[in-house]
Amino acid sequence: DGGITQSPKYLFRKEGQNVTLSCEQNLNHDAMYWYRQDPGQGLRLIYYSQIVNDFQKGDIAEGYSVSREKKESFPLTVTSAQKNPTAFYLCASSATGTGVSSDYGYTFGSGTRLTVV
Amino acid sequence: RKEVEQDPGPFNVPEGATVAFNCTYSNSASQSFFWYRQDCRKEPKLLMSVYSSGNEDGRFTAQLNRASQYISLLIRDSKLSDSATYLCVVNRGGGGADGLTFGKGTHLIIQP
Question: What angle do CA A93, A96, A100 make, to 5 degrees?
Fold first, then answer.
C-alpha cells in the first residue's frame, strides 16, 4: 500500500544537539512538506519542496534544515539554533499539476513527537 | 485578520444531532479548500475537499462562499466516532504546491 512514513515516532533530544527526522513516501508525489504543531495551535509550515533538489522556506524555517536528494525522501534536521523544538512534527506529500488544484489534498505521515530533555 | 479562523469550541452535541461549523479565510487568491479531521495525538486526515458548488459525502456536506470568504461543514446524524478536531484548510493561492494554511481547528464532542 502506498503511504508516507515518518520515523521515529518519539524522539528525545538533549539541548544543543541536532536531530534528523525521517520522512519517506511511495506515493510518487512530487511535493513534500514539513509542518510543526504545538498544543492548541494550528499547523505551521517549516519547509516545502516541489521537486527533487529544490526546496523553499515556510513560515518558521529558522533553526531547521532540509534536503531533497530523492523524490521519495525529505528529511528534516532540527538544529541547536531552534530555541523551542519540542513539538509534534508532521510530514506531508501531495501530487501537483496545473489548473485548479481543488483535489490536491495532502497525505500526512503519522508524525514524530520531539521532546527536548 | 488571521489567515484561517475557526471557533475552537468545544462543541458538545448529543448523538444523532446535526452540527455545523464555519471558518473564514483571508486570502482571496486561495483556490483549494479542504476539511481535515484530526484525532487526539494523531495526524490530520483528509475528510473532504470543498467545491464552489458545494458537495456532499454521506452525512457530511461542505459549502464554500467565495464572496464572503467562508467555508462550512455540516454533519448530519452525528455519531460518537465523529468526535474529533476538524481543521479548515486553504491553499495559499497560485496552485496547490506552495503549502496549505491550517486553521487551529474546531473541537467536536459527540455525547451519548
Answer: 125
The pairing of strands B55-57 and B4-6 is unpaired
Average pLDDT, chain A: 89
- Distance CA(A70)–CA(B47), nearest Å, equals 29
Taking a contact as any Cβ pair under 8 Å apart, which residues of chain A between 45 and 104 contact chain B?
Answer: 45, 48, 50, 56, 58, 88, 90, 94, 96-98, 100-104
What whole-number distance in Å separates Cα of residue A93 and Cα of residue B97? 9
Q: Residue range B58-69: average pLDDT? A: 95
Cβ proximity of A30 and A51 under 8 Å: yes
Burial class for A56, CB neighbours closer than 10 Å (0-12, 13-18, 19+): middle
CA distance A32 to A24: 10
Mean of pLDDT values over B60-82: 96
Chain A nearest-CA distance from B39, in A, is 11
Q: What is the spatial order of strands in the sheet that A19-25 belongs to?
A: A4-7, A19-25, A76-78, A64-66
- The alpha carbon of residue B20 and the mean position of all alpha carbons in its chain are separated, in whole angstroms, by 10
Rounded distance between C-alpha atoms, residue B28 and residue A111, angstroms = 31
Residues comprising chain A, all counted: 117
Average pLDDT, chain B: 91
